Amino acid sequence: MSIPFASEKHVAIAAVRRACALTDSVFNKLVKNETLTKDDKSPVTVGDYSAQAVINTILSRAFPHDPIVGEETSSDLRTSSASSLRSRITELANQALGEDLALGEMREWGIGPRQVQTEEELLDAIDRGSYGGGRSGRMWTLDPIDGTKGFLRGGQYAVCLALIIDAQVELGVIGCPNLPVDPSNPNGARGCLFVAVRGQGSQQLTLSGSSPIPLSIPAITPSNLSFLESVESAHSSHSFNSRVSKLLLVQKPPIRMDSQAKYCCLARGEGGAYLRMPTGVGYREKIWDHAPGSLLVTEAGGTITDSRGELLDFGLGRDLGENFGVIAAGKDVHDDVLAAIKQAKLEEHE
Ligand SMILES: Nc1ncnc2c1ncn2[C@@H]1O[C@H](COP(=O)(O)OS(=O)(=O)O)[C@@H](OP(=O)(O)O)[C@H]1O
Ligand SMILES: [Mg+2]
Ligand SMILES: [Mg+2]
Ligand SMILES: [Mg+2]
Prior knowledge:
Radius of gyration: 20 Å
Bound molecules: 3'-phosphate-adenosine-5'-phosphate sulfate, magnesium ion
Helix content: 25-40%
Strand order of the largest sheet: 3-4-5-6-7-8-9
CATH class of the largest domain: Alpha Beta
């Protein structure tokens, strides 16, 4: 009997690995006019666009009928003033797609030497990520660079891909080119790949191809937690987290880190809890920002809910609906964290 999602896992790992090689190489060469500002004022770089083009090209060849919910669209690239950006993206994407085949990769996925995509084909590939999401059927979520601000400052960022079937995350693959392989050696080798399949556990590999290490979140008492949280205070409330910390008698300072690398660190035993409380009304969390990370945490034995204890719903469209925050933690402390959040909210209204 074949292992469920074995081929999806192979394709997803190949796609994320190639995209990570691309983003890693682009970072040192990025020049000022290769970053745009989107309508919501957030940054997007040639790295984000070309990584989405590469992953969507591979997914569309391997699974032509699967829709993709991807963060980026090509509209800002199709203007006459963006011709140099288009050329750069075409060059970067073709370089990543054209690398020699690694063990387990197949030419049928649109990769390998002399597999060349035109500029138009790559822009169309980016736009294959325009699916609106929904409750039934298969779909992929893609965040080609999660934590673009982290990427730009040379910090943490992640290439994030998930397969969702009937609103349930079945597979998650996250590449973290800047994350130390061994958390106890922060200045040592960098470049991690995290893989989770529902019912098959979570694993860490290196981007260069080491054998997988199974992950599990160790037990911890609340006062020994060190909350994982966003770097950007606009993305999650630092002040609310610090009130929750006080209520739980947490001694250690928070670990601030961009991107879904926070979920990866939690899954391998760092911090003990990830808190992402909304900073105001209006913003809705996007499914590509949480789908692979949520499975990585649950398959490592953790729990993920919103701040009311409700499961995240990946079947509502491109976002998660009204934002009640995201709380991920080891099973044993998750209830304590939720109770402290409830208490902090009550005190907020006193
Ligand atoms: N207001 C607000 N609230 C919550 N989240 C927001 C908000 N605005 C943007 N975003 C999304 O945050 C993603 C990156 O956040 P992270 O916590 O991963 O990193 S960071 O430390 O905040 O940079 C970031 O993902 P990328 O765009 O892929 O970088 C956004 O999707
Ligand atoms: Mg993101
Ligand atoms: Mg992104
Ligand atoms: Mg973005």
